Amino acid sequence: QHVDSKWVSSSSEIIAFRKALLNPVTANQFQCFVSLKGDLLGNGVLFWQEVQKYKDLCHSHCDDATVQRKITAIIDCFINSAVPPALQIDIPAEQAKKILEHRKELGPYIFREAQMTIFALLFKFWPKFCKFRSNLASDKILLALERKKGKKMRKKEG
């Protein structure tokens, strides 16, 4: 649909994308695809998945210590990494700061804004990925992506 000449996604496309991110095989293929488009995009897929696991943990009513460990693990990996850059996902610095300030608040929403930002960013690549994989057998997708990655690396070196 076109609204003010901007593309508006249908809810069925959004649902399909969400399901794809929850499917380990498709998510892995998509992660490889977007990591060719930008260094932090691949991390975005992993971040989105880890936040989903975190929310499931919260809803499973497990103990606070476990929930806190998961928060710390996500923060240490994606928001305040020991490996430079500290922010390993494409979110505004203010969002990262807010997460760090609220890291002791347990509950499913600590990463909500960041997860929505990442989802919207990644969703822009979904149609391109669907087009890319439509021409390939499922077992050939990762192989094709590896080839593209190799070409990209050779360009950087040469």
From TrEMBL:
Domain of life assignment: Eukaryota
The protein's name: Regulator of G-protein signaling 22
Domain RGS residue range list: 16-122
Gene Ontology MF: a single term: G-protein alpha-subunit binding
Any single GO BP term: regulation of signal transduction
PANTHER family given in the database record: REGULATOR OF G-PROTEIN SIGNALING 22
Gene3D superfamilies reported in the protein's UniProt record: Regulator of G-protein Signalling 4, domain 2 (1.10.167.10)
Gene Ontology cellular component list: cytoplasm; nucleus
Species whose genome carries this gene: Antrostomus carolinensis
